[in-house]
Structures are given as C-alpha cells and as structure tokens.
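Field notebook, page 499. I keep forgetting to write these up properly, so this time I am using the form the group agreed on. The chain and the ligand, GDP-alpha-D-glucose, are recorded exactly as supplied. Prediction of the bound pose follows.
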Amino acid sequence: MSETPTSIKNHTTVEAENELGRLVIVSNREPYTIKYHGQDICLEKTPGGLVSALDPVLKERNGLWICWEGAPKKVAEFDDVSVLDEDIDWESLELPYQIQSVALSATEINHYYYGYANTRIWPLFHYFVSRCNFFDERDWPSYLSANQKFANVVVEHTSDSDWVWVQDYHLLLVPEMIREQAANRRIAFFLHIPFPAVEVFKVLPRRDIILRGLLGSDLIGLHVPEYVEYFLDAVERLLPASEVQIDRVRACILYQGRTIQVKAFPISIDFQQIETLASSEEIQTKTKQLKERYGNQKIGLSIDRLDYSKGILENLESIRVFFEKYPTYKKRFCFIQIAAPTRTEVPEYQKMKEEIDQAVGRINGALAEDNWIPIHYFYRSFPMDDVLPYFMLADVAMVTPLRDGMNLVAKEYCAAKTDLNGVLLLSEFTGAASEMKEAMLINPFYIEHVADTLHEALHLPAMIREDKMHALRENIRQHDIHYWVNSFMDAFQYAISHR
Ligand code: GDG
C-alpha cells in the first residue's frame, strides 16, 4: 500500500470531520449482539476484526451502521441463550452510535443468506465449484430483493456528504442499487473473501449483473493485488468493451462516465490489543495452567470456523501422516484443533462436522497410547481470553485453508507470540501468504509435504525461529487494523476527488 498511515485522531479534528462527513457501514452482520443474562438485556460487541476496527471510528465520527435486523437473533440462538422473539428496537438500547436495521422476510433470509450468499457465492469464490448449489431458483430473487432493501435503507438514511462503505459478498449488488437512486452518493465496497480467477468466476450465472452491481462503487477494495488483477480481468473479459475501459496502470475502471478505483487493502488485526492482553497477568496465568495440563509435549494448533474452506479434514490427515512418518513423536507432540461452529443450518456444514468427528475418532483410536492422545478437538467457540493462551502455548500454528481471503488467525498467533517462541505454517492459498513471507508456506493439498514441514518446524533452530517471528510481528504491528481503516479511508477520499 502506498499511502502514509494517518492516525484516527488526525481524522477526527473538526475540520477533518466536516471534510469527511459521516461514515456509514453497511454489512449483513450487526456490530452488537443482544444477549439475555436472566432478565437483563445487554449488548455485546460482535467479535471479529471488522467490528473492533470500525467500532471506535464510528464512535468518534458519530457514524451509522446499517445491518440485517435478524442477525442478532441468530447469534443468540447459536450461543444457546434465549432467542429474541420480537423485532429489535435499537433506539431503546444505549448504543454508542446509530444502528439502522434492515427487515428481511423469512424467505429472504433462507434464500439470500443461506442460499445465494452461502451456498453459491461463498463456495464459488473459494474455488469449490462442485459445492455450489445453482439449482434453487428462489435464491436469486431473494438475493435481489434483500440487496434492494439494504440499498433502500442506505438511500433513505444517508446524504451525499456521507461516506457509505458496503461490506462483503452478501451485498454485491448494493452499490449499483444505491447509485440508481442517488447518483452522487459516495460509495465504497470491500470484499472479505477472495475474488477468484476469471475462469472460475465466469461459472456464476448472471455474472455480468454481479460485476455491474459492484461497479456502482467509487472504490472497490480487495485483500491482495492478485484479487485486484482477477477482478480487472473479469470486468475486461465478461462485460462488453463498449461499456468499460480498464486502466491497468492506475488500476481503475471507466464506466458510465465515472472512474472507479480498484485497490488492495490487506485486512489486519488490532495488534496492540492482542499484545497487551497476552502480556496481562490473567492470560499469563491461564497459559501457565494450560502448559501444566499438556506437560512437556510440543504443541501444534489450528483455530478455525468449521468451514470446508479452512482445510480442517486435510490437515487432520497431515497429522496422521506425520505420526506415521515420524513415530518417535508419539507422546512428544499433540495437535489441538479448535473449530468454532458456523452456519449450522446448512446441511453441507452438518455433514462436514460429522466427517471431522469421525476423522478425529479414527486417528485417535488408531494412535492413542496410555494417557496420551494425538488430537485434542474442541467443537465450540472460545472467547478471545481463552483463545490467547492456546496461541501462547502452541509451538507451531497450522493455518491450512484450502482457500482464504486473508486469514486473521495467522496474524493473531504472531501478535500473541510475545516471546517469539513459535512457528507459523501457512497455506499458500490464503491472502495472508502474500504478506507473511517469513512463515513456512505449505500446499494444504500435498498432505505429505505438510507433515514434513511440520517436522521441519519442530526442528527449526531457536535463532531462525525467533528471527522469523520477530519479522512477522513487526510487519503486523506496522500494518495493523487501524492502518487498514485509515488507508482505505484515504483511498476513498482520493476516489471521490477523482471520480
Ligand atoms: C473472513 C474471511 C478474512 C475463530 N475461532 C474462534 C475465534 N475465531 C476468530 C479468530 C479470527 C476470526 O474468528 C476468524 O477470522 P478469519 O480471517 O480467520 O476467517 P473468517 O471468519 O472466514 O473471515 C477471511 C476475514 O473475513 C476478514 O476480512 O480474513 O479470509 O474468510 O479473528 O480469532 N474467536 C473466538 N473463539 C473461537 O473459537 N473468540
């Protein structure tokens, strides 16, 4: 990224605020979750990098967050807390900034969210063409109507001096749908998943409508330069030459008399927050307790949402092969897999969970000895306070997605490794691999190679290990989530002044 980072504070002086206008985030997911503790209702910040990064900016700039109003109900349900049975009156709750919800029908939720977004766009953009469900005719109309509802709420609640920032693959049509009603609205879009190579993207029915939807934006952000190239390729090859002109040098597109900037913004984490937490007494104590529980063994760790894109099954097989090739590691190494439940309504995910259960059972059944088991498997979501001690415990983090837009776990592991005593094994099919050059890169499809690289990681001399971890940490420290937000907002301003 070429921009010089500007601090959030600089952006919030009075002049800058006037110049910048109000920031409006549009996402499927809500920034706050409503939870019941007995009779009391309380608000909890939705975990994850995006909310951590944007929440303070929205607070300082008195922003607005537009999201699907049903999302909090779903989260409550997953977490086994009472389910909210009434629509949420956000205004009655004490929120740090305005939240405007978008009401969707049950059909839209099923076919826009679970259907089109999660069983069509998600698998396709992660290169799982054969997992796509192209056959349910109800998905597309729901995707259209849900996106239209989001766009209508944006138009109604914003003005041309606001900065509207649309997030992710659920809302690919929203930029154009806003533009149709409000030609001068300032609109940016960020895609959190990969943008695939054109040969894969072109499989998508109505791909031209999706591209035109995105081209309603003034700025389109993707994680890494490779995805920018793929996006430009798709526009160039799949839309008529009479409609678009691509400027590869300036990475922009001329379309309907407007200039649209397309740029890479690798998302990151709140490095400082994790580093501070990791150094706290509470986390140090928890880490010590974990170390006592696992004894002298070396530890490998993976933390993922339970999703087929994360390569959990393939990695379990690598662990089996590792013990087969290097049997002396029995009782001297174990692997911990934390898999957080996600999209549990989708049959594909239920099936995957069963396959993982079986694989863990099979490997542990075959290899366990005395009190030792090779794989410790947790199928639940851990709060960050409980995740951090695992990061600090692990000698090797195995980040092995088959495809991933960026992958924040890789960055979080490094941020937590304040003692530099850890090695990162990283799939070359993650966006993170293009930045985290000091990681040990692996091809997660090449099982034997992953097993060998794990072996190599466990033997890495301390000096090399520490040098690598130091370099990884310094890069993340400098390019943290605040850098990401600020460089995106700088580019957004640039895009508006050059549109
Ligand atoms: C999408 C893109 C892109 C996981 N398990 C637990 C837990 N987590 C946290 C991690 C991390 C986050 O969830 C997962 O972020 P990832 O980036 O790894 O993956 P996705 O959820 O698929 O995110 C991805 C990201 O958007 C941002 O643009 O990087 O490529 O797919 O923060 O720590 N957190 C807690 N308990 C768990 O059990 N608390």
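OBSERVATIONS:
- Residues 1-15, 71-86 have pLDDT under 50 and may be disordered.
- Residues 47-49, 192-193, 267, 303, 305, 338, 340, 381-384, 387, 404-409, 412 surround GDP-alpha-D-glucose (CB under 6 Å).
FOLLOW-UP: compare against the apo run.
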